[in-house]
Write a structure and sequence with these properties.
alpha/beta; Rossmann fold; 2 domains; five-stranded parallel β-sheet; 17 helices; 46% helix
């Protein structure tokens, strides 16, 4: 049995796949400690994993008005880098210290992209580590970096350099503070100008990618130690029961259209709600709205619309006609796995990448960037998703392929092989 620390920085959609992976490792006989932000303490412990605290509150960050403005910029790498410097750097030293504390006694460290200090902590402790990633991050000539707008005609060289540029944008932003922490706290040699990326490759540090090869095939120029395992699905949450009012709504008519934007906050939630209601009225569809962190709330909703506080996607999505969402990696995975059509309204970060990918696969109408969303555009997309038979058949077929994969088991097998 190994003591494994999983470092999960991010929102609920980021943390949940790591809980699923942690449960898979724990069922294989390992002890798993999962480090995340305070709002997820109960979620982690409820699933039987040890919790370690990381500084920060993703919900508070996305509710900040300046962050909302950045979300409106879509896939703008400069805007995202400014957001990273403004919101992430002030807490960098404390986050790294929390990561160091969470890794105490670990035989293996698994870390998400924003918990990259896990690599240097593992180096200091003399234990193996692996990045565990929910998006295609590593350098490739196959497609551009996920923060860069797709430009397929610029070719492999541009794609490769876009990954290098993204790495350096983040590294140069944090390099002075990060290197000071390496020297003063870990007592190890600071990183050079270009950072640790080349050394990760030279050391053949395995990367685990928690998404399906049927959605993003493994690029031909990735090495053998980069593994696309399949999605890390949590499944139905133990002890959760659907509330009676939700069951009554679902049973009172045809499957509704799900609409939820997860942790993404719009500038005016009530206007967003009215836009959604108008689109549903135009299409004549029933709607199921999730409040999430988007601030959506409302009373006196029409009888064909129901609002719920929180419902596990694994239970809900197979029961709806289509899913309208922001394109976060977790919600995208759940929608594709359920085999239902998607309508993606990307806000920022990796969301435009997933939206482009789902549309390219023929599983959704053209994505609507959040800044261009209107009732008419949303209604048109809902109509297309529900009435395009080819799209619906493709969604059903891909859902079957995704459900046939066992990403948690595959990742657990690779991890077990690495530490034994």
């Amino acid at each position: 049995m190994a003591n494994i620390t999983v470092l999960a920085v991010g929102s609920r959609g980021d943390v949940q796949p790591y809980v699923a992976l942690g449960l898979g490792l724990q069922s294989a006989g390992h002890h798993v400690r999962l480090a995340a932000h305070l709002p997820f303490k109960d979620f982690v412990e409820r699933h039987g994993l040890e919790f370690a605290l990381l500084v920060g509150d993703p919900q508070a960050i996305v509710e900040d008005s300046r962050v909302r403005a950045t979300m409106q910029s879509g896939r703008d790498p400069i805007a995202f880098l400014r957001l990273f410097k403004r919101e992430g750097l002030p807490q960098l030293e404390q986050l790294n210290n929390d990561i160091l504390f969470a890794c105490h006694g670990a035989d293996l460290i698994l870390y998400s992209l924003l918990a990259a200090a896990g690599y240097h902590v593992a180096q200091k402790m003399g234990v193996p580590c692996m990045p565990i990633v929910l998006q295609p991050f590593s350098r490739t000539r196959a497609f551009p970096n996920l923060f860069i707008p797709s430009r397929p005609h610029l070719g492999g060289t541009f794609n490769y350099l876009s990954h290098v540029g993204s790495e350096q944008g983040f590294w140069q932003a944090l390099r002075p503070r990060y290197n000071r922490w390496l020297k003063d706290v870990l007592g190890i040699q600071p990183e050079g100008f270009f950072g640790p990326y080349r050394r990760l490759y030279q050391q053949r540090v395995p990367f685990l990618y928690g998404y399906s090869r049927h959605v993003v095939p493994k690029p031909a120029d990735w090495p053998d130690w980069y593994h696309v395992t399949g999605y890390w699905f949590l499944g139905n949450e133990a002890g959760w029961r659907p509330p009676p009012d939700l069951l009554n709504f679902l049973g009172s008519g045809p499957p509704p259209v799900y609409i939820g934007f997860g942790s993404m906050v719009g500038g005016d939630p009530q206007s967003a709600l009215q836009m959604v209601l108008e689109a549903l009225e135009i299409t004549g569809q029933r709607g199921l709205l999730l409040r999430g962190w988007g601030g959506l709330s409302g009373t006196d909703l029409p009888s064909n619309v129901h609002m719920a506080a929180s419902v596990p996607h694994a239970w809900l999505f197979p029961r709806v006609a289509a899913v309208v969402h922001h394109g976060g990696s977790g919600t995208t995975a759940a929608g594709l796995g359920a085999g239902v059509p998607s309508i993606l309204i990307p806000h920022f970060a990796d969301q435009p990448f997933w939206a482009d990918r789902v549309h390219t696969l023929g599983l959704s109408p053209a994505p609507i960037p959040r800044r261009k969303l209107s009732a008419d555009r949303l209604a048109h997309a809902i109509h297309a998703a529900l009435n395009d038979q080819v799209l619906r058949e493709k969604a059903t077929a891909l859902g079957e392929q995704i459900r046939a994969e066992d990403g948690v088991a595959r990742a657990s097998e690779i991890i077990h092989r690495h530490i034994c």
